[in-house]
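If your schedule permits, I should be very grateful for your opinion on a structural question. The matter concerns a single protein, recorded as an amino acid sequence and a row of backbone structure tokens. Could you please explain, in whatever detail you think fit, how the structure tokens follow from the sequence? I set the record out below, with my sincere thanks for your time.

——
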Amino acid sequence: MKKLNLVLFSLLFITILSGCSISNSKDSDLQPDNNVLTENEAKEIAELTCIKGGESLAPGYYNENTKTWWFDANLNSTQEGCNPACVVFEDTKTAEINWRCTGLTEPGTSTDKAIQKLLIEKYPKYADTLFVNILQETKSHARGNVVFVTGAPGGYFFATKIDNVWQVVFDGNGQIPCNLSEYGFPAEMLSDCAE
């Protein structure tokens, strides 16, 4: 009989303890999360980080899975085929631009062809193998990579329209000179330049 009472008492004790732990976890779920950003707070961070003069943000969208706020961004310089957004991370309260490039630009657009032609004129030895890949483009500026032979190291180029005609103003594979800003390149294209 003593053993039966001991077993019943033990089961009752375990049941009471498990009930307490369940009720405690429910109480903690009711506490507000102090890390949640409102749309206005997130937009303020986005405007400070992603937006420069004349640019704007659309109303935000909150992604519960990633805990991020997304604001479509109307930027002054974007690559064709891209739809940039400013993404604000709730946990770090930081923001960055997500370019959301979808490949809508067909390979071999007129800009690609014009710059490829200019580089072939400069490097005729590679006329049959040279190709370019534009990484950033505005209406009058382009930055990209040039590959002379598939599988071999290439370089980069910067091109601008002068009198409405594309001109390669710099190509190479070393440091990018900051004085390219004299040609009106957007700061985003020269973010990795060196004096």
Observations:
- Residues 39-98 form one domain.
- Strands lie at 56-63, 68-74, 85-89, 94-98, 131-137, 141-147, 155-162, 165-172.
- The two ends are 90 Å apart (CA to CA).
